[in-house]
Write a structure and sequence with these properties.
The chain is 41% helix and 6% strand. It has 12 helices and 5 strands. The protein has a 3-stranded mixed β-sheet with strand order 3-5-4, sandwiched between helices.
C-alpha cells in the first residue's frame, strides 16, 4: 500500500496542487498540505503517475481485453433518476445479456485456469448468471450452469457488488479481470490484497462520471462524499482513476454534516476506495476494467 504523501512534482504537473488548496479553503474538499508543501487527497491517497496507467506496463491482460468485440456501453449512473425502476431494470437486463456474450468470448480467450469455471451457454435463461453478477456466496461452492468447478466470489465483501446499477457495473469489471488473470494474480490484486482487506467488507470500487459533474454547492449537499473526488477529476483532464480515503475527501464541515445526518464516515483511520471515471472511459466495460486493473496494480505492494 502506498503512503499518504503525494509526489509534489506529479501534482504540479497535473495542476492539482493549487486546485486542492483553493478548494479546501472554499470548504469543498479536505485537501491539505504538510510542512513540505506536498498536497494530500486524504490519508493514503494515490494519483496515477500517467494518464490512467499503472507504474509498469499492464501487459497481456490489456491486450486480451482490447480484442473483445462489443458495442455495449454502461448506462451512466447519473443518467437515471433514483425512482426510475424501469430504466434501471432495463439496464440490468442489457448488462446481463452482454455478460453472456463476454463469457462466451472468455471461454476461448480467457486465462486457461479459469475456463473450467466459466458457465455454458444459457441463452434465453440469462438470469442464471445472477449469482455471478451479484457476487453470491454460492459462487464459492456451486458451479455455474455448464461449468466444471465453482467460479469463486468476485470479492470477499457484500458491499462492492450489489443489485444497484453502479455496483453491478463494478461486478462486471471484476468478472472481466478474473477471467483474464491467473488466479494467483487476481488474488494478489483483489481477494487477498491489502486494499480490500483494509476495507473490511466495505465498498472499495466506485464508478461514476465524475469529470462531467458541476462543482456547485447545491450538488455538493447531496453528494458530500463525492465532492473532493470530483474536484480531482474535474481539475485534471487526464485523470482516469484515483485511490483515496472517502472520509478524507470531505471538508471538516461536511464530515460533521454527514455524521449528523446519520451517514457513514471513514476518516484517516478507515479504508481507501478506487474511484473510476466512467465518462473518460467512454462507458466501455473493457476500458474500465483495464483502468481498474491499473489502479489495483498501483495499490498492490511491490
Amino acid at each position: 500500500m502506498t503512503t499518504g504523501r503525494l509526489p509534489e512534482r506529479a501534482l504540479r504537473r497535473r495542476g492539482l496542487l493549487g486546485l486542492f488548496g483553493a478548494v479546501a479553503t472554499a470548504g469543498l474538499a479536505g485537501g491539505c498540505t504538510d510542512g513540505g508543501g506536498a498536497a494530500r487527497v486524504g490519508e493514503g491517497a494515490t494519483v496515477p503517475t500517467s494518464a490512467g496507467s499503472a507504474p509498469a506496463a499492464v501487459g497481456d491482460l490489456v491486450d486480451r481485453l482490447a480484442d473483445y468485440p462489443s458495442r455495449f456501453r454502461f448506462v451512466p449512473t447519473n443518467s437515471l433518476r433514483y425512482d426510475d425502476a424501469l430504466g434501471r431494470a432495463r439496464a440490468t437486463v442489457e448488462m446481463r445479456t452482454e455478460m453472456l456474450a463476454f463469457l462466451a468470448w472468455a471461454r476461448t480467450h480467457g486465462h486457461p485456469a479459469i475456463r473450467p469455471a466459466l458457465p455454458g451457454d444459457v441463452t434465453g435463461e440469462e438470469f442464471r448468471l445472477d449469482p455471478l453478477m451479484g457476487n453470491a456466496e454460492s459462487l464459492d461452492s456451486q458451479p455455474l450452469p455448464g461449468a466444471e468447478r465453482p467460479f469463486g466470489r468476485l470479492i470477499p465483501d457484500n458491499e462492492t457488488v450489489k443489485h444497484y446499477l453502479a455496483l453491478r457495473q463494478s461486478g462486471f469489471l471484476l468478472i472481466m479481470l478474473k477471467t483474464m488473470l491467473a488466479p494467483a494474480e487476481y488474488a494478489r490484486l483483489v481477494t487477498d490484497s491489502p486494499l480490500v482487506k483494509a476495507a473490511a467488507g466495505k465498498n472499495v470500487i466506485q464508478i461514476y462520471p465524475y469529470s462531467t459533474q458541476e462543482l456547485d454547492l447545491e450538488t455538493a449537499r447531496y453528494l458530500l462524499l463525492m465532492t473532493g473526488i470530483r474536484v480531482a477529476f474535474v481539475g485534471d483532464p487526464e485523470l482516469r482513476w484515483l485511490i483515496a480515503n472517502p472520509g478524507q475527501a470531505l471538508s471538516p464541515e461536511n464530515q460533521r454534516r454527514l455524521a449528523e445526518a446519520g451517514g457513514t464516515l471513514y476518516t484517516s483511520d478507515g479504508y481507501r476506495a478506487v474511484y473510476l471515471d466512467s465518462e473518460r472511459a467512454g462507458n466501455v466495460p473493457a476500458t474500465l476494467a483495464r483502468t481498474l486493473y491499473a489502479a489495483l496494480r498501483a495499490a498492490a505492494p511491490r
